[in-house]
Amino acid sequence: MLPLLKSHLQVNAPGNERKITLHPTLLPAITGAPTTKKIDMPRSDANQPRVKFVVNYRDASRGKQKIFATEEEAIAFARTKNPDFRCDPIRESEADEYARMLEECNNRLNEYGKTIKDATNFFIQHLEAEEKSCTMAKLVDEFLVATQNERAGSQFELDDLRFHLMAFVKRFGRESVAAITSTRIDDWLRSLNLSIVRRNHCRRLIMRAFNFAVQRGYTSSNPVFARFVVSRPV
After folding, report:
1. How many CB atoms lie within 10 A of CB 189?
2. Pairing between strand 4-10 and 62-68?
3. Per-residue pLDDT at 94 exceeds 90
4. Is residue 225 a part of any domain in this protein?
5. Which of 23, 41, 203, 213 could hold 218 in an S-S bridge, CB 3.0 to 4.6 Å?
């Protein structure tokens, strides 16, 4: 169920010279939970945003709210509370633009069987991963220290690991680990003037570093797939 797009008519008591505006806001769809007042919103298409108009006003120093099906009814009621009430045409245009944007995003997501909620959850997960991430240079430093402390391999293998990962750091060192994609890694590997065997070896070492990143929570997945470069750069 889509959120309600509500347009607010903020009404000030007579004598208050603040400008009154009409502006949109998003509210969650109301489900009729015990603590929530249910609002029946008739509509012809369940996938389209539903627009209602709400007048927020004060009566006897208490904040109140009244919902209307049409803008005309909302404005008429607002003027009973403040005869000088005027809608701000600039804000009205912004409300129309916002509604169009919401509808466009909803329609594009429908093509993939997704909702605005799905898109929001996905993007928030991405942002949370970015916040927990670190730079590639920091990851490689931590990985090399951990590998050395675990004595995982000979000194030759450790030097080989450091040599190849530092080449990767030279290209991606300042970037967030969570932002580095498999396509960019693959393009970088293909750009190296190395034999297929050496490039595949380098891929394995980078994969190990990203496995370490997943364990540390710096990224949610390893962008280095378990595949090999089988062609030379053109």
Report:
1. 20
2. unpaired
3. no
4. no
5. 213
E strand or H helix that includes residue 23: strand 22-27
Q: How confident is the model at residue 229 (pLDDT cuts 50, 70, 90)?
A: very low
Quote the domain boundaries for residue 17: 4-127
Domain endpoint, select from 95, 127, 159: 127
Per the CB < 8 A criterion, the answer to whether 24 and 6 are in contact is yes
For residue 197, the number of C-alpha atoms closer than 13 Å in the C-beta half-sphere is: 0
Phi and psi angles of residue 4, each rounded to the nearest 5 degrees, phi first: -85, 135
Residue 226 lies in a domain: no
Tokens, residue 160: 């080989």
Diameter over CA atoms, the chain: 85
Cα gap 66→55, rounded to integer Å: 5
48, 159: one domain: no
Q: Are residues 36 and 99 in the same domain?
A: yes
Three-state secondary-structure class, residue 50: strand
- Tell me how many helices (H) and strands (E) the chain has: 7, 4
Place of tokens 């496995």: 211
Please measure the distance between the N-terminal and C-terminal CA atoms of the chain and give it in whole angstroms: 51
Give the chain's length.
234
The Cα 186–Cα 227 span in angstroms is 10
pLDDT digits (tens, 9 = 90+) for 126-152: 787 778 889 999 999 999 999 988 876
Bridge partners (DSSP) listed for residue 10: 56
